[in-house]
Amino acid sequence: MARPTPLSGFPEWLPDGRLVEQHVLDTLRRTFELHGFAGIETRAVEPLDQLLRKGETSKEVYVLRRLQEDADADADAQDPGRRLGLHFDLTVPFARYVLENAGHLAFPFRRYQIQKVWRGERPQDGRFREFVQADIDVVGAGALPYHYEVELPLVMADALAALRPIGMPAVRILVNNRKVAEGFYRGLGLTDVDAVLRSIDKLDKVGPEVVAELLAAEAGATGAQAEACLALAEVRGDDAGVVDRVRALAAEHGATTDLLEEGLAELGALVAAAAERAPGVVVADLRIARGLDYYTGSVYETVLVGHEELGSICSGGRYDTLASDGATTYPGVGLSIGVSRLVSRLLGAGLVRATRSVPSAVLVAVTSEDRRGRSDAVAAALRARGVPVEVAPSAAKFGKQIRHADRRGIPYVWFVGEDGAEGQSAADQVKDIRSGEQVPADAGTWTPPAEDLWPRVVPSRRADGPVGPSAERPTALA
Amino acid sequence: MARPTPLSGFPEWLPDGRLVEQHVLDTLRRTFELHGFAGIETRAVEPLDQLLRKGETSKEVYVLRRLQEDADADADAQDPGRRLGLHFDLTVPFARYVLENAGHLAFPFRRYQIQKVWRGERPQDGRFREFVQADIDVVGAGALPYHYEVELPLVMADALAALRPIGMPAVRILVNNRKVAEGFYRGLGLTDVDAVLRSIDKLDKVGPEVVAELLAAEAGATGAQAEACLALAEVRGDDAGVVDRVRALAAEHGATTDLLEEGLAELGALVAAAAERAPGVVVADLRIARGLDYYTGSVYETVLVGHEELGSICSGGRYDTLASDGATTYPGVGLSIGVSRLVSRLLGAGLVRATRSVPSAVLVAVTSEDRRGRSDAVAAALRARGVPVEVAPSAAKFGKQIRHADRRGIPYVWFVGEDGAEGQSAADQVKDIRSGEQVPADAGTWTPPAEDLWPRVVPSRRADGPVGPSAERPTALA
Predict the structure, then answer these.
(1) Which of B8, B28, B49, B67 should be substituted to probe chain A, the one whose Cβ sees the most A Cβ atoms within 10 Å?
(2) Are residues A247 and A366 in the same domain?
(3) Got the DSSP string for A32-59?
(4) Could you tell me if B341 and B386 lie in one domain?
(5) Has residue B346 been placed in a domain?
(6) What is the ipTM of this complex?
(7) Where does the record locate the signal sequence feature (chains A, B) (predicted)?
(8) Averaged confidence pLDDT in chain B
């Protein structure tokens, strides 16, 4: 077999990169659990008709076929209700899981879900065909109070803040509200709300003049209506002033409606709570239009400060109908972190690194193959007290065994005491191969310093700011 | 959308079942890391020609196609080097990863890998189309000493022993060695070793008389040769006596060869080490023939005691050529735990349960929606000290809020002190809803007892044996 080459769009990490990804996943999981979210995992596949239910062919679904299935002979294989595809997000499977298990779940149901998803799109920087998402959602049976739309982005703010000590940049969570946009546009007299949103969504790309033309052509807007829509899109801020500015703009254009006022009350509550609980993180940005065509209330996007061109690393919003079985409607609100996009930037930009590439804190040297059992016994004694350890692969010269540890970043090498002439054994010794210091040690009591016990994930560039030992966290399960 | 029904062969768990699975995964991961294995994750797909390289069509590979790909117009779609399939195990992807990254890995390379795999087989009890495997392997560049064939099953014995406290039955790891079998058969004069192995593999199903006929028909064995093969298959034991019995049998039938002696030395070393480090767990069983056609040394299968009909939950062996790039050959030895099979039995047989279905130890009650911010602040203070907590969904009557906690198994409900008439607040109170005991509490200092902090995974049936509190482990990241 010739040396294989990577598949574009299917990222994989070397062991030290995987340590960084695993640390990110552990940190997210722990934060979600501290906030009372229960973890679930769904199968990777869904019936194709469910995946395509909302016309999601733009997601480029991967369809499965068993190799030995005779497609021509099997009419079922062409039936979208029988064909299976890989899920392209965790929302469609979660909605299905809720309907399937509604009788066994207690609502409002808080769940997190961390899994791979697949999209057959053209790979680009930060856009993969296989990637990991970390989602949280709260779903209600029949009703879901607005306060969850305040809570969920703050959970994500907490989760992302927990990654700052390893060298992740600050984040900014941009929020908007469907009711504000729709209430304002309808107040102006524009009834094709989705057409307005599609035009506004192009603002960053084509600029205000072209958007004004689009608003006229696509949504039938007059010059004054287009001007008002563009003025709304300029409103941005992290305090109650945002609500005042929108309200004044609506009054100026005679665009005040009950729906607008409802939306502003919600947006104001979110901004106020965020100012207290995650100052500077949440920003109301009325230009955000992506997702407002399917979300029914709040909508969220998140940028890494200094890496805005990467696109959103955490998005979501409120659905009045996440799922429905006819008898009951299940509204939900949730956000999804693009873990692979985030980790690939952390690694690719050299922001974060692992202190070593293997779990072992100690390599137990082997004096001779006959005495390997003694080295194994030392390793077992250390592991029993929670010290990760491996035994040298061969009874090579000690210099070679030390190089074996050094190449992996293993900080300590353990030497088992030699048998003496009169049946007495010399004491074991342990060497810190960084300093060269070697001291007598007992496998029943010796423990490495806490910072050496497990590989840690730390900022790569000390120049990014002051980083003390408290900023470093162990990467393995404690 | 009508209520969906489960897909046969694609298991999913309710949140309390997922807690059990997550605990199993965390425990395996921790054990693997204590033994110095580095975690990696590979993409879910491999080129179809790689998946089919060893004629593995029996594994019923799932082939992928992008929905919008025009299969007829695209000749590439028919080229097995361009088509992608879902991996059916973690060995093929690991071999590819080693070749692709050989320049960046230090050998011998110890890795663990815990991921889903897919096989389009007919679903049965314990046999799924999508399931999780947990693999460990050591791979060398050019050479790999035998002692790893002793070490790896003992790592798995350690990992599976770490699950005993939650109620998992004991395991028995059955081992055999290709060199023993092949050396013995060749010593007898039987040259079609694979035909002998295929016949012996049917022993449990069809019995010795039919196998004797098969050996004659398929491998050209005489009556005496068949008798010797069947006698070898009867040898079983967990001490050095096994080696003596095989050696005596070979002498009796004139079947002694250098290859047999080499295999017996290996098998003897494994049994001796196991007797010391995991007494009673590892059993040499010369009847094991599955896998001996592709493994080149040791081979392992593992049964759950009392659940033998479930089949092996942890299998593997030694490959002299796990991978090769022409210049270098990479031998390896590894084992794979069928996590889904194991967890589905633990849950299905009611052996194991989680103490609650949500992470939260505390529900903070809400007195009125106006005062939700105070409940949020209490929750934040508790979380900052590592207590998992959620806030009540609505300011319902306290009785209803307590029932909300009770339904989820949340043990504590927190009541925020009311403002007094003169601007003084009464102290907060926390109620253990199991005992009804309610005491004053401060969110800056109160902590629940350790056994209530996180959901725990515990044996379901106390009747299975004496189980003390020390047998119960937290299920979340500490």
Answers:
(1) B67
(2) no
(3) HHHTTPEE----SEEEHHHHTTT-GGGG
(4) no
(5) yes
(6) 0.93
(7) none
(8) 91
